[in-house]
Structures are given as structure tokens and as C-alpha cells.
Specification:
mainly alpha, Serine Threonine Protein Phosphatase 5, Tetratricopeptide repeat, 6 helices, 85% helix
């Protein structure tokens, strides 16, 4: 819902949908949904010209990914995660 609201430039609706998604992802401990929600928040804050908040959101997404990488014992899985274009993009967004 948040991504749809972003496309429509319905900032309040997106913020509400992302808040719900973040609450659920935290409650169930789903790292994939956590980093995706933080990434979406970063896009929202970028679109609404809040660069500091965007950096915090991108950093939160990166932090979740780092925790996942730290828990992976299989070097192949770790390399696959690190090599993912989307993961590299998150790191780029955080660095900019």
C-alpha cells in the first residue's frame, strides 16, 4: 500500500501504510520486510525533501541487512546477498 501511495504522491497515506508495515515486521521479526519498509521510508523522505530522515531510513535498511549477513554461515549465501543489485543500491543510497 505504501508503494502505491508513493507512486500517487499521497504522502500521508504512504506514511500510515509504512508505519503499519514496520510495526508488523518488527512484531514478527521479519528482516526482509524490515529492510524493505525502511527502504520505502527512505524513498518517501527523499520524495518529500527530508534528506536527513531519508539517510536514517536507508541506514536502518542497511543495518538490518548487516545483521542478516552476520548471521549467515554459508559463504555462498553471504556472497549472493552482498552481490545483489538491490543490496548494493541500498548501500549507495546510504552513502550519498
Amino acid at each position: 500500500m505504501g508503494e502505491i501511495a508513493l507512486t500517487r504522491r499521497q504522502w500521508d497515506e504512504e506514511d500510515g501504510a509504512l508505519g503499519q508495515a514496520l510495526t508488523i515486521a518488527q512484531a514478527i521479526g521479519n528482516p526482509t520486510q524490515l529492510w524493505k519498509t525502511h527502504l520505502a521510508y527512505g524513498h518517501l523522505y527523499t520524495a518529500t525533501k527530508k534528506p536527513e530522515m531519508a539517510q536514517q531510513a536507508y541506514g536502518a535498511a542497511r543495518d538490518v541487512i548487516e545483521r542478516v549477513k552476520g548471521s549467515l554461515r554459508d559463504p555462498g549465501l553471504r556472497a549472493s546477498l552482498e552481490g545483489s543489485p538491490l543490496m548494493r543500491r541500498i548501500y549507495e543510497l546510504y552513502a550519498s
